[in-house]
Amino acid sequence: MTTADLIVKNASELITCGGNAPKTGSALAELGILRNGFLAAYKGKVVFIGDEEAFHREVKPIPDATVIDASSRVVMPGFVDPHTHLVFAGTREEEFLLRLSGMSYREIAARGGGIMSTVRATREASEEELFRLGMARLNKMLEKGTTTCEAKSGYGLSVDSELKILRVIKRLNEKHPVEVIPTFLGAHTIPAEYKNNREEYIELIIKKMLPKVAGEKLASFCDVFVEQGAFTLVEGEMVLKAAKGYGLRLKVHADQLSPGVGAEFAVKNEAISAEHLEYISESGIRALAENKVAGVLLPTSNFFLREEKLPPVREMVEAGVPIALGTDFNPGTSPVESMQMVIYLACLLYGLSVAEAINAATINAAYAIGRENELGSLEPGKKADILIFNFKNHSHLVYHFGDNHINKVIKEGKLVIDRGGDICYL
After folding, report:
1. In angstroms, how far apart are the furthest CA atoms of the chain?
2. pLDDT tens-digit map of 113-154
3. For labelling alongside 232, which of 32, 42, 160, 408 has CA 20 to 30 A away?
């Protein structure tokens, strides 16, 4: 018999998202649904998935086990958000108003807005202020079903401020139920004080920032923004090569604002993911597919910026690119903490099916941060990160959009959110 301290029973749909990771092609639509499903966990790990008969035959709950009746409710893995800019100070609502009046992102940046606006506010903020803001944002993420998120630095762009952000990310991971995966993004943009001396800033990243980041073990990944107005391919490669030498895994902001070879660049440099990809080329699609590099797509950013140019998502799926979805949570282009909103828009803007979007927000998102063996699906041996929804069919996640459908959130076997509420759409 298998010992269990947590039981979730009678799920109308127990969505496992199980199987080989990443899910590509037709497999992206396979959710592994069990009707009237039972799940058991012990010490934070899933130990059983199956039907009622097998549960009674194979599982022995401890005397004080937590038992949750999920009758008429969907149960699925916790959302994994593989692309956020979690830690920053200040807001940029005035830029939103300028965009509504017709001004472009680049025009706003040229006037001193954009990333540098947030850099100025973040540099001025104390570590305690950033920690408080980060905790509040993680609360919102958790309430909407995110149990793991990646968090990038990149709003400091100086040695002290980048380290400050990464130390805050480390504290947030230690103090909050949401698991936070740290990414160093010192190569986000060239700060104003180095505008006329790019080489010196790149040298600062490589010789000052990276040694300290690695020395304090403050990041798992290093990301670079390769784009017109940000970093060239040569500059980006210099940073990634140095980061790899310190044992960091690599990510790339790629093909976001203009045509280029960002996806190909990510593959060449053995990055785990290429992110944004609005302007990805046919050769870039092939490169990601052949090398199983995750393509992280950010529909809330496309929506908020009212972009007409969207990534060629169906072509990417059909080619076999491992599609993942994230919020791109940040103050300027996607002030959205909700992976439920990401899923709505991935279906309504990109044309993904609900099943494809769910897999892209769970098991494939876990793959995009190198955690597919621990997170992203409900299978024995993986973390018991579990969502219970107030509906009985997963299609309602998109059909009834604009609401928070979470009933309960369980992180590593512990109930961390219990919103109760009536069942929708019986």
Report:
1. 71
2. 789 999 999 999 999 999 999 999 999 999 999 999 999 999
3. 160
